[in-house]
Structures are given as C-alpha cells and as structure tokens.
Amino acid sequence: MDKIEVAGIIISLIAILATLILISQTSFPAFTYATGNWIKIGTANFIWNYRFLDLVAQAIVLFGAAVGCLAILREEKEEEKHA
Question: Where are the chain's structural domains?
Fold first, then answer.
C-alpha cells in the first residue's frame, strides 16, 4: 500500500465516523411535513397519489448511473489498446 491509499482509507474512516456521529445526534423529521393538509394543493397531490412513478424514475436513474460507472471503469483488452 502506498501513501495515497493509506490517506484515502483514513479520510474515508473519518468521513464515516463523522456521518455516524451526525446521524446519532441529530433527529431527522422525515415525515413531519407530510402530515399537513398542504399536500392536497396543486401538483403535490399528484406526486403523492402516483408515488410509484417517482420510484420507477429513481430506479432508472440509479441503473443508468451504475451502467455509466461500469462503462467508465471497465478494463481495456490488449487489442483495443493498440488500435
């Protein structure tokens, strides 16, 4: 392991530790605002009634991002390197 790998591991561990501390000491009111009557106004009613469309769109975006990352990080064959 070289110095960059060690530094990356240390920074990653610090980031994970900081995130865990933040999560444990902060409350996340995720559904506090979803209980009010304001949801039934305008387009928000559509969003909450057809939530599956949002989830399908998110799944497509995540799948596309994963495929893009795999395409970027794939290994080249010897024939492609010389061409």
Answer: 3-82
